[in-house]
Amino acid sequence: MVVSVGIKQQEVLLDRLSFIQNLKQADIELLRGLSWDFQEFPAQHVFVEVGDRPTRSCLIIEGVTCRITDLQNGERQIHALHIPGDMPDLLSLHLKVMDHSLATVSHCRLAYVKHAQLQDLCERSPTLNVAFWRETLIDAALGRASNLRLGELSAKERLAHFVCEMRCRYEAAQITDGSTFFLPLTQEIIGEFLGLSTVSVNRCLQELRGDELLRSERGITTILNWSALVALGQFDPTYLHLND
Amino acid sequence: MVVSVGIKQQEVLLDRLSFIQNLKQADIELLRGLSWDFQEFPAQHVFVEVGDRPTRSCLIIEGVTCRITDLQNGERQIHALHIPGDMPDLLSLHLKVMDHSLATVSHCRLAYVKHAQLQDLCERSPTLNVAFWRETLIDAALGRASNLRLGELSAKERLAHFVCEMRCRYEAAQITDGSTFFLPLTQEIIGEFLGLSTVSVNRCLQELRGDELLRSERGITTILNWSALVALGQFDPTYLHLND
DNA sequence: CGACCCTTTGAAAGGAATCAACTTATGTGG
DNA sequence: CCACATAAGTTGATTCCTTTCAAAGGGTCG
Question: Which tens digits make up the pLDDT trace of A218-241?
């Protein structure tokens, strides 16, 4: 379903990219010249599948999506969670065959651009070329953070690290309300992301709440003790590359 | 220590890039025009540190390097292992501050190019721009494979998956001898990569040997039963993007 | 030949998974 | 607006895979 193209929605991308690069007027015009197709999906909807050869990439306007690999036993590993402003399949611009799937976690509004347009834009503007390339590099950096969590941290530490990351990303995307933000994730999803069982996620969450590090109900998450969370999760935001 | 610049060493890069793109003559000349600084390091040598702001990137000519994050307790997570033909810090071309360290695992010979040269080359040739971008995307895909191993696979499965990946990458880099290749890694390094203790790595390796899936001594690894290894590790080489 | 690093082995402890049930939300239709 | 159905969260008991601890064997190199 194609919905109306609102200027405000396009600005999501401008906000994101201007954050990291000094865009010249010409670049801004190139970005504004992109034509987007808007599409909405319900929660739990797979919108890109392994093996697909996408001809366009999407920008998340609203909602949360995840990058998934399915396993034989029906389990699945969530490699990454993406929030508004992210372009979860920007990589398909140069990796022709998808090596994973993308699915919505919550109800989502996505904006699609054709690869051809992006390629053209990258050839015209070295600045934008770098900006988009850089987006894929930061996406990869988030993957390294996942490695760290999965490989070295305990269940409780993983959860703390994860919350810290999300808080920073939400803040960067300017969708926080003070130290409160809305994470529309079930404990099952969090478990699939952190390599934990739902039961473990639940218990660790309760511990974090009991330790008064955070409050959370129905996805509405409030950080109560940031420094303690950071320490527990050994969280170092360098990998988010928000300031370089 | 800067050593002599051999033509053969430069070809490592050409081989790698021509594998994935149809290079035009002009591109090949641009690549040949790059000036490399060759440097050698002993094993266990950290050559890029967290927080560094590199002005050049390296290509591995010989040896194995690793991408590392150090933790408080002295443990470290190895995010990735790189082999000849890989450019482990190509990402520093656009991520100014390193969010991890790079270290040699075995004795290494590295070839360095200045970022300025690479940037210039990317502006001159859209093809090469894509080729290098794509290299960083594949690097990220390897990270997703790590996620999968760490998050969903048992110790034995992780090891199997890992061996499968290395075999494919070694083959692509043309440094195999039939089903035999040289992995200069201690069990400790493998453990740090797979999120396992040295003891577990050792026991799983013995199992794989006992099951006659592979043979290995002093890093010399021989695959005895490829399909069984692939099945055990649930290995799907799509993410290596060797054919697209 | 001894020092050192890597590998191997055994026994015990522990963190998280699993299984199963129960409670609390969310949502739909009568 | 309540009854029922479904999804999400919570709890307890048990099992199991890995880790940890500790020590012995084996290879390499000065």
Answer: 889 999 999 999 999 999 999 999
